Amino acid sequence: MEIRSERPADVVAICELTTLAFKNTAHGSGTEALIVERLRAAKALAVSLVAIEDDELVGHVACSPVTIEPDQPDWYGLGPVSVRPDHQRLGIGQALIHAALDELRNLEAAGCVLLGDPGYYHRFGFASDAALTYRGSRSRYFQRLFLRGTSATGDVSFHPSFDD
Ligand SMILES: CC(C)(COP(=O)(O)OP(=O)(O)OC[C@H]1O[C@@H](n2cnc3c(N)ncnc32)[C@H](O)[C@@H]1OP(=O)(O)O)[C@@H](O)C(=O)NCCC(=O)NCCS
After folding, report:
1. What is the pLDDT of residue 46?
2. Mean pLDDT, to the nearest integer, of 109-123?
3. Which of 35, 51, 99, 109 is the most interior residue, by most CB within 10 Å?
4. Helix, strand, coil percentages for the chain (3-state, nearest 5)
5. What is the Å distance from ligand 1's center to 149 Cα?
């Protein structure tokens, strides 16, 4: 399996893959593919990596800048992350997320946040944090990972591309 940055020729396949991956999930909103498109159009896809196996796109992960109030620069949000259903639970998601975090380190990111299942993201070091809230409240699903430094305080907003 190869992991590399997205290319223009991947755009349609990323959209299809994202739709397919979230289609039968309880937490999917059906807007994940649109969010990736909007991030790309807004030039806010800070990281967009694809996983390729046998010349087919089997996974994708996106990262985009987030804002924290009061302002703390260089924080990013991870997601959506998608693995083609017939390739799930083979380690592709983990490989993509590790690669995305490496890309964020290269960008000298201070940290990364996400909304997701703690049972999955705990393995990468993500944890919920009373000091870092989402929409004014703490949730076990809203988690952060420090990439530089050891603390951050405030309320986080994802890029407007995530808004309904
Ligand atoms: C979540 C997703 C990206 C994980 O990718 P993957 O390639 O299937 O996962 P991996 O093979 O890297 O990891 C498998 C491990 O994660 C666990 N796992 C996978 N999905 C999980 C989930 N939703 N919740 C908890 N654990 C999960 C597996 O049990 C397995 O654990 P183990 O290593 O202890 O055996 C993928 O399943 C997917 O695309 N799901 C649909 C879209 C989605 O929900 N995206 C994430 C939104 S937050």
Report:
1. 98
2. 97
3. 51
4. 35, 30, 35
5. 28
